[in-house]
Amino acid sequence: MxxxxxxxxxxxxxxxxxxxxxxxxxxxxFKLFWFDNEPEEGPLHTTLKLSRKGExxxxxxxxxxxxxxxxxxxxxxxxxxxxxxxxxxxxxxxMLTPSPFKTNISKDAALGISSEPNFSHQEGFHPSPLxxxxxxxxxxxxxxxxxxxDPDETNRLVYETPLNISSNTVVRATxxxxxxxxxxxxxxxxxxxxxxxxPVVSLTMD
Length: 206
What we know:
- With about 210 residues, the chain is mainly β.
- The protein has one helix spanning about 20-25; strands at about 1-5, 15, 55-60, 65-75, 80-85, 90-95, 110-115, 120, 125, 130, 135, 140-145, 155-160, 165, 170-175, 180, 185-190.
- Strand 1 (about 1-5) and strand 2 (about 15) form a beta hairpin.
């Protein structure tokens, strides 16, 4: 059989023959393949390297023509798996409890990833204070910080009204929709009534 991350080139990686004990999947069994582009590590390591930002993955029959299965996945997060709902094979979920070599655990799974927040003003230099809005889809909660810290569960405020930005400020915000993973954190730096004839770099580190 073949793996590919390009529908136009379905035969990119051939699961090597001669390793039946390692590559054969019997009914009710599970197998873990590594898409790390390190085939020298063994027959379960492929020549493909998948992007965490999302792409297509497909499995093609040994005959090189019959498509067995495919998925176009979206952005991925560390330590969270993405797979079929064991109760509804047509639905894909983000599993908070990865379960390699076992059936997917759909309890407390997320339907998707929340979209990132939008800001009413562009980051950078501004001649006067701002009344800045942060926008997210209906039903979502926006969390933010004004001190450069990551808006995690231990250090964040809930956005309710426009923010008064009257001095140099680093705004970091994330969005949380019900039954969804939180969005990636968006960071914006605002310089108020500052002037510079040199390029300015603002660094924010977790």
